[in-house]
Amino acid sequence: MTPRTRRRAGWAVLLVAALLCGLGAWSYGQARGDRSLSYAKARDAALADGKRHLATLNSLDGENAKRVDAGLRAWLDSSAGPLRDQLERTRKADAKSLTAAGDTARSKVSSAALTALDERTGTAELIATVDVEVTPRTGAAGTQRKRFGATLARTAEGWKIKALTAIGTGGGR
After folding, report:
1. Phi first, then psi: what are they for 169, rounded to 5°?
2. pLDDT higher than threshold 70 for residue 117
């Protein structure tokens, strides 16, 4: 290969590399500004926060008054709007009855999905199945499977649950 041919080949390789870099930068810019990517990020954040807060609202350590109070505080931190207002109104009565019962509940969201997301208004709808392991003060522990529908609201701290509804299993005829 002559020096002139080598030089042309070098320039050709450099030109192809520059074109590929430009194409990569353009593609990245398109994806970064993509509305569907923004929507997917909001959806993922709402789903993750909703699952975490739903598990919190179904968990409580009733061993003593201190733990019950911490659990009720966690419930307030997981809620917003009407649900939070209701939990604040009933907090003293809840603390008394939960401390007296002494039951402990630990929950895990086994499956969940968003059925609606409105980024403009900052609301989302979630459906979920929650496995709740209940350990009574006396007696044997057991696991309950529950289904919920939840309305989420976007707050400064992330998505929180503003309404929660138990969903029946539909097993009756």
Report:
1. -80, -15
2. yes
Give the DSSP per-residue string, 42-100: HHHHHHHHHHHHHHHHT-EE-SSHHHHHHHHHHHHHHB-HHHHHHHHHTHHHHHHHHHH
Quote the CA–CA distance of 115 and 151 in Å, as a whole number: 10
Instruction: Give the containing element (helix H, strand E) for 14.
Output: helix 3-32
Tokens of residue 146, six digits? 């529950």
Distance CA 40, CA 32 (A): 12
Q: Which strands make up the sheet holding 123-135, listed edge to edge?
A: 60-61, 104-118, 123-135, 142-155, 158-166
Rounded to whole angstroms, the Cα distance separating 172 from 60 reads 30
Calculate the alpha carbon distances from 96 to 83, 103, 104, 158 in Å. 19, 12, 14, 30
User: What is the pTM (predicted TM-score) of this model?
Assistant: 0.77
HSE of 15 in the Cβ direction (CA atoms, 13 Å)? Answer: 6
Q: Is the CB of residue 115 less than 8 Å from the CB of residue 43?
A: no
Question: Look-up: residue for tokens 């307030």?
Answer: 76
Rounded to 5 degrees, what are φ and ψ at 102? Answer: 75, 10
Average pLDDT, the chain: 91
